[in-house]
Write a structure and sequence with these properties.
The strands form two sheets. The chain has a four-stranded antiparallel beta sheet, covered by helices on one side. A three-stranded antiparallel beta sheet has the order 4-5-6. The termini are far apart. Helix content is 13%, strand content 32%. It has a single domain, classed as 2-Layer Sandwich (NE0471 N-terminal domain-like), CATH 3.30.2020.
């Protein structure tokens, strides 16, 4: 099944909250990729926070992007915990 990204939000500690077109929200950790190729530039927080939806995936201001299937496979289920 192919899932497209419909929303992305940068969080602290180089995490991305990604919403897919099946309405599922997942967390993707960028830290393991920040020492590789064009992703090195994303260590600059202002560049990291420039992430946006592009077509069916995500892209940053430096034109780095990631395949949506990879994002889904390498992300974890997002569990929202309400403060009591």
């Amino acid at each position: 099944m192919y899932l497209a990204v419909t929303n992305v939000k940068p969080l602290s500690d180089y995490q991305l909250l990604i919403t897919f077109d099946n309405s599922e929200k997942r967390l993707f950790d960028m830290k393991p990729y920040l020492d590789k190729g064009i992703y090195r530039e994303l260590k600059d927080e202002s560049k990291f926070k420039s992430v946006r939806v592009s077509f069916d995936s995500i892209e940053w201001c430096n034109e780095a992007d990631i395949d949506p299937e990879f994002l889904y496979e390498k992300s974890s289920e997002y569990v929202f915990e309400k403060a009591e």
